[in-house]
Design goal:
By secondary structure, the protein is mainly alpha-helical. It has seven helices and two strands, in the order H-H-H-H-H-H-E-E-H. It has helices at about 5-30, 30-40, 40-50, 50-75, 80-90, 95-105, 120-130, and strands spanning about 105-110, 115-120. A hairpin with a 6-residue loop joins strand 1 (about 105-110) and strand 2. The model has no long low-confidence stretch (mean pLDDT about 85).
């Protein structure tokens, strides 16, 4: 029988795994490195997660849970879809939003419920993060 890990240690293991998988990919990520970095034995990882694939899935679920928390907080006080989308983009952070703009040219969000499409370009993102330096955003209206 093994001692149950506390939440802090479990979060550290999962965060370490997420970092390792992000840097190396599933195939090249090393369980030994993850365990050492998290300060636990390799045996602990295998006892808790079974195998590398199961551990990877636990890391994905953990990431999605964290993302869900961020998104829920971002839209908690918004009253319309467009404001909610702006809050979500803002929660990404300026660097991530600008990276998406640089890569794709725009940030496009389509509402899965009503099909409304919202588009933000570089000017919209700049206005979102520095409203005093740019004229009001021109996000397209729902189609």
């Amino acid at each position: 029988m093994y001692k149950k890990l506390d939440e802090k240690t479990l979060d550290l293991i999962l965060e370490t795994g997420i970092d390792q998988f992000a840097q190396c990919g599933l195939d090249r990520a090393n369980i030994n490195t993850i365990a050492k970095t998290a300060g636990v034995s390799v045996g602990v990882l295998y006892k808790y997660f079974g195998d590398k694939d199961s551990f990877f899935l636990a890391c994905v679920r953990h990431s999605l849970s964290l993302l869900d928390q961020v998104l829920q907080e971002a839209v908690a006080h918004e009253t319309d879809i467009e404001s909610g989308i702006r809050s979500i983009v803002k929660s990404l952070g300026k660097d991530e939003a600008e990276s998406i703009i640089k890569e794709r040219g725009t940030i496009e969000v389509t509402c899965s419920f009503c099909g409304a499409k919202y588009v933000m370009d570089a000017i919209d993102v700049e206005a979102l993060f520095h409203p005093q330096t740019v004229t009001p955003p021109t996000t397209s209206q729902p189609q």
